[in-house]
Specification:
Layout lengths: L4 E9 L2 E6 L2 E7 L4 H10 L4 E6 H6 L5 H10 L3 E5 L5 H9 L4 E4 L1 H5 L1 H11 L4 E9 L5 E5 L4 E6 H10 L4 E6 L11 H10 L4 E5 L5 H9 L4 E4 L1 H4 L5 H10 L1
Parallel strand pairs: 1-4, 1-12, 4-5, 5-6, 6-7, 7-10, 10-11, 11-12
Antiparallel strand pairs: 1-2, 2-3, 7-8, 8-9
Helix pairs in contact: 1-3
Keywords: Amino-acid biosynthesis, Cytoplasm, Histidine biosynthesis, Isomerase
Family: Belongs to the HisA/HisF family.
Pathway: Amino-acid biosynthesis; L-histidine biosynthesis; L-histidine from 5-phospho-alpha-D-ribose 1-diphosphate: step 4/9
Amino acid sequence: MGNATLYPAIDVRDGRVVRLHQGDYAQETRYETEPLALATRYAEAGAKWLHLIDLDAARYGGYTLAPLLRAITTSSWMRVQTGGGVRSEADVEAILDAGADRVVIGSLAVKEPEQVIGWFRRFGTERITIALDVRQTGDGGWELPVAGWTEASGARLEPVLEVYAGAGLRHLLCTDVSRDGTMAGPNLDLYRHLHAIAPQVQVQASGGIRDIADIVAADGVGCSGAVLGKALIEGRFQLGDALRQVRRC
């Protein structure tokens, strides 16, 4: 393995920890653990990073997790990448001021790439993670849904990624929506494709990871990190075991 970074994920909706099945808000699993308690558990297991998403904001705009973000970053050593509903430069600034190390930008990255590239210059490419969520089309291509995966954008993966890679993109989170929340395994062909298009970009695998072997497999096709969601929350593997595996390699 190439010492991949592991990002345990906490998705929040209505103040609760949830996971969606294939990005469908109507297919939601809620968990009893409170978001801060879950973050604390991950920190105690040794996580260095946390992936925190405001699902309400992803759909409707208006990031609401600043108090939770502050609580996490002041009570642990974890670094946090977080987003949901980022619509403006002021949103990015506010989330960074609340303690985030990176801001995740999804829908706006697809709709307004020139604006987002301008933020690379102001905040630096280390402070921004571009999230391109993808669905495969009948012709084998990849389209980019937006607004919490509820709207079609008409944009395709390759030209959007090429624009960002040319502008110096460093961190890309790419989720195959059809795999998200399914524990069916990551889409390794997708990640091979991304590595071939933009080998200089650090890609985080997301969607479908079910065990430590999947983390190893994602690393093997060029991913620099992996976002760990449903399988981790439901105890299919232990974060400490996964971190130890990464550190041994």
